[in-house]
Amino acid sequence: MTKLGVNIDHVATLRQARRTYEPDPVTAACLADLGGADIITVHLREDRRHIQDRDLRLLKQTVFTKLNLEMSVAPEIVELALAEQPAQVTFVPEKRQEITTEGGLDVVSQKKTLTSLIKRFKERGVVVSLFINPETRQIEVAKEVGAEFVELHTGAYANATTETEQRNLLEKLCRGADLSRELGLRINAGHGLTYKNVGPVVEEVDAEELHIGHSIISRAVFVGIQKAVEEMKELIYKHSLLAKTDRQS
Ligand code: PXP
């Protein structure tokens, strides 16, 4: 069954709005765990706009499922990540002005840097994933630089405004997933996924892990984190079963 990675950055965003101690993303991770989260994801940004170094340190000590750290290739962040050794790191592009991660990582132009970074993380037993657009060249180079996973960017699919556009972008994601599998890469997917649009991604892209943040934390404001995670898990379960039945018939 497709696994659920819950991104808890937005809990930290709320805390940083007042530079206080609440709400604590570490508590959020415990509640997400109770709701059935398979993975806890955080992005330690260079500007520390939400997750702080202390959060990463405590999450490393308290998350016993899988901790996935989204990060840029900035040397300071790399050294911190190597010191903390989360189970998995996902390299993402990072711009200070952006509201959230825009677009995938350009692995083609950063081939040399990524090759040596991935080697360092692998030597320490840290799994490496690359957040990329579902484009042939990016996928091929992701394999060449030694990544174990690619996380296919679902943002364009999520932002589609017509059914035709959404279908075309879903097919693009499926082609990207097929090529990744052929090359021996493992597949994650995420960005912009919601309770409404996650179904077709579960059924057709067939990723190992989906990483979802904003939609779950938004629902959690009203129903609580544990319930919001449970509801997303149920949806993923239902669509995973549908896909399995479909493949068997
Ligand atoms: N995957 C990656 C690589 C991301 O950068 C983000 C956003 O932090 C997500 C998944 C989750 O996106 P969303 O908050 O839109 O669900």
Task: Explain the layout of strands and helices.
Elements: E1 3-7, H1 9-18, H2 25-34, E2 39-43, H3 53-62, E3 67-71, H4 75-84, E4 88-91, H5 111-123, E5 127-132, H6 136-144, E6 149-153, H7 155-159, H8 163-183, E7 186-190, H9 198-205, E8 209-212, H10 214-223, H11 225-248
Bound molecules: pyridoxine-5'-phosphate (PXP).
Pyridoxine-5'-phosphate binds at residues 7, 9, 43, 70, 90, 92, 100-101, 131, 151, 190-193, 211-215.
Would you kindly provide a written description of the structure presented here, covering whatever features stand out?
The chain is of the alpha/beta class. The chain has one domain: Aldolase class I (TIM Barrel, Alpha-Beta Barrel). Helices cover 52% and strands 16% of the residues. It has an eight-stranded parallel barrel with strand order 1-2-3-4-5-6-7-8, surrounded by nine helices. Strand 7, helix 9 and strand 8 (209-212) form a beta-alpha-beta unit. Helix 2 (25-34) runs parallel beside helix 3 (53-62), helix 6 packs parallel to helix 8 (163-183) and helix 8 (163-183) packs parallel to helix 9 (198-205). The chain is globular, with a radius of gyration of 17 Å. The mean pLDDT is 96. Pyridoxine-5'-phosphate binds at residues 7, 9, 43, 70, 90, 92, 100-101, 131, 151, 190-193, 211-215.
